[in-house]
Specification:
The protein is mainly beta. The chain contains four helices and eleven strands, in the order ββαβββββααββββα. 13% of the residues lie in helices and 35% in strands. A five-stranded antiparallel sheet has the order 1-4-5-10-11, with no helix packed on it. A two-stranded antiparallel sheet has the order 2-3. It has a two-stranded antiparallel ribbon with strand order 6-9. The chain is elongated, with a radius of gyration of 25 Å. The chain starts with a strand and ends in a 6-residue tail after the last helix.
Amino acid sequence: VSKGFFMSASYSYGVAKTLMDGTSDQAASNWGYVNNPGSPNNVPLAVSNFDPGHRISATFAYDIRLWKDAKATWSVFYSGQSGRPYSLVVYRDINGDGYANDLAYLPASASEMAFTNGTYQQLVDWLNVEPCLAGFLGKIMPRNACRGPWINTLDARLNVQLPSIKKVRVELTLDILNVLNLINTENGI
């Protein structure tokens, strides 16, 4: 803190792997809904749904004296982080275990699958948009092998502290969440 200015920044990186993330309070759901390449009885170690990846955060704040004991604080918070891990799964239960949790096999050639409402080349073109997916042609995609795009978030706050009246202090705040989307609607939601 210097002359009303405050700044803080951090970087973190983490890796989390799991057999199953245990997101349900029922054992059957935890067992049955873990995405797997064949059998929920033999789930390989894979990247967790909660794998943090890279994260950068920064906070900036500046105090502005308004009058007497009234002041305003303008602050912004930035967070940039790795996208969420994901994998492609088949919509239906293709191995007959009663759960739609089967990781997708990405065919290496048009002869390996029948195509309806499209061609093998259209599938390959779609997979090639994401280099991570294209790397699994001819294989069953591992659970959470790919990541969504980098996520940027910028929030701002204006906080005004009014002078105290009989030991009562009033604060007015204005929060703007997702400032990047306010500037450009293609940034964030």
